[in-house]
Amino acid sequence: MAYDKFTILKSSAVPMPIENVDTDQIIPARFLKATERKGFGDNLFRDWRYDSNDQPKQDFVLNNPIYSGKILVGGKNFGSGSSREHAAWAIYDYGFRCVVSSFFADIFKGNAINVGILPVQVSPEFLNQIFEAIEKDPKSELEVNLEDQKITILSTGASESFAINGYKKHNLLNGFDDIDYLQSMKSEIESFAAKK
Amino acid sequence: MSNSPKTLFDKVWDSHVVRNIEDGPDVFFIDRHFIHEVTSPVAFLGLEQRGIGVLFPEKTFATADHNTPTINQHLPVEDPLSANQLAQLEKNSAKYGISHWGLGNPKNGIVHVVGPENGITLPGMTIVCGDSHTSTHGAFGAIAFGIGTSEVEMVLSSQCIMQPKPKKMRINVNGQLGKGVTPKDVALYIISKLTTSGATGYFVEYAGDVFENMTMEGRMTVCNLSIEMGARGGMIAPDQTTFDYINGRELAPKGADWDKQLAYWKTLKTDAGASFDKELTFNAADIEPMITYGTNPGMGIGISKNIPSANEVEGGATTYAKSLDYMGFHENDAMIGKKVDYVFIGSCTNGRIEDFRAFASIIKGHKKADHVTAWVVPGSHIVEAQIKEEGILDILTDAGFELRQPGCSACLAMNDDKIPAGKYAVSTSNRNFEGRQGPGSRTLLASPYVAAAAAITGVVTDPRQFL
Ligand code: SF4
Question: What pLDDT was estimated at residue A1?
Answer without folding.
Answer: 47
